[in-house]
Records
---
Amino acid sequence: MENNLRGKEKECAERIYSIVDDLLRNKTYSNSEINQWSNVICETSMDFLYSKLLPAKYIISCYILKSASTEAALRFSTYWDTGDKHLQICWPKGQKNSNMRCYVNVYILKIAQEG
């Protein structure tokens, strides 16, 4: 999987960014809608990854914050081998939508081969 993923990391990050951008680009932050938006982002991203990168296990998290001007510190710690990967997608690039910010973290874990 490591060789398969290495060339696809950029493609995956760009596609997930596009998923977020397509959903949130013209939206205004809404407390009543962020759970739905987060679910759509996670599920659509999972569908994309699952179709591209078998065999692997995936963990996806999505954080939507109210204002793009608000500072945020998102940290993660991992312990794994070089075959596992982490992608972090931050939206928006620049300030084209200044009323919210979205962070998507994707953990891609290789499945051990038997034998």
---
Amino acid sequence: MDAKSTAFHLYKQTLIRKNTNPIGQIYSYEQKDKIGQGAYGSVYKAIHKVSKQVRAVKVINKLNIKYKERLLSEITIMELLDHPSILRLYETFEDAEYLYMVLEICQGGDVFDKVLEKGCLPVEDAFKIYIQYMRAVNYYQGFKIVHRDLKPENFLFQKKNDLSSLTLIDFGIAKRCIDKLKTKSGTAYYVAPEVLDGLYDHKCDVWSAGVVLYVILCGYPPFYGENEKEILTEIKTGTLQFDGDEWQGISQEIKDFIRSQVCSAEKRLLPKDLLSHKIITQYNQKFVQDNKLLSMLTLNQWVKYHPIRRLALFYLATQLDSSELVNQKNCFFFINTSQTGLITQQELSTYLKVNKQDVQKLWPYIDCNSNGYLDYFEFVAMTLTQQEFLKQLQFMFDFLSQQDKVISQKSIKSIFDQNANFNNKWDSISDTKNHLAIVNQHEQQINVKNILEKDMDFNAFKAIMQ
């Protein structure tokens, strides 16, 4: 097989670097750039010295971590998840004292800020927000993950006054859920009653999502009290009411839609059913399409690219802010009619108006993690324009060369060697066959010579990217 048509297997997690060199070599930030305080540490605004991208760095004192396993679980979950409405983890750094999480920066405030500012939001705005976070819930529940702390404060906006830039954050108490969970967790106003009983599953997030929609529409929670004990008692024994003046102009259909979530777990709808509800269809954003973004010509061209070019673009696709990918995000959701956050071969062939067999032939080259779906980062990699990626050549080169002067077989091998770390990592977190790659051992052994025949300096790399 021609080296230039080599397909390779690569997990998205492999592209998230775990650095042991000083973070100051790569990022510049100062104490005055502090933008927040989390449960584990302080968050700073930082600038990547090469790409000039603005990012958030969470600085965690390892000596003061009370729940180390919880932090490691959060990192593992964020490494895996890949969705336009879920916060991105770009890379980590570690030294003797601190762990640094480099994250997507969100500078538009949170949903709670919006509610405080306006009292309550118009129905159309409320559903614009709801659809985005319910898509995220539907996606991560495909991996049998439960967030356990959905609330307005955990829905941030990439940009100020842009409701379509919603991002879900804080997987600090997220958990894999095969059987019932028992640990009581969450935030008082939004926690489901079965969580308080100490026996629950993924449906607890649907309750919280419904409560958030209630709060957005009227400005206050459905269950409240003078203190936490009273609030929790009300959640367990109270009845969902729509008595306030704010509900006078809101349809019975919307109230029933909220009731289908804020109800007993047995009657509660699943995210996929909520997203296909006629109310959602009514308020769903009609995505404007850039027809030049993806075509069979694009796919056929992608297959012919040098493997190093494809690898570089896969990497860059995991490293861009969602705010830089508005066209890609809109097109991705337009194609992904099932709203799972994963494009199927059938969905892609329907969008391209070609036979499924035509897509199947190209699939090994675009589905690089071999999970049977087109993930968001894979889609983004194929649809980045030259204008978008040529300004990041040095950034991509630094990753592929592992900060050396040339891209070598050794540097490429070190990247693919990271794949082995993820083959069994999710045994303890997920066995979801539909979403996780199942790859035979021999398929994981990459012949680096098929990807790179000889050392490639920056000029040679630049040439294959043109």
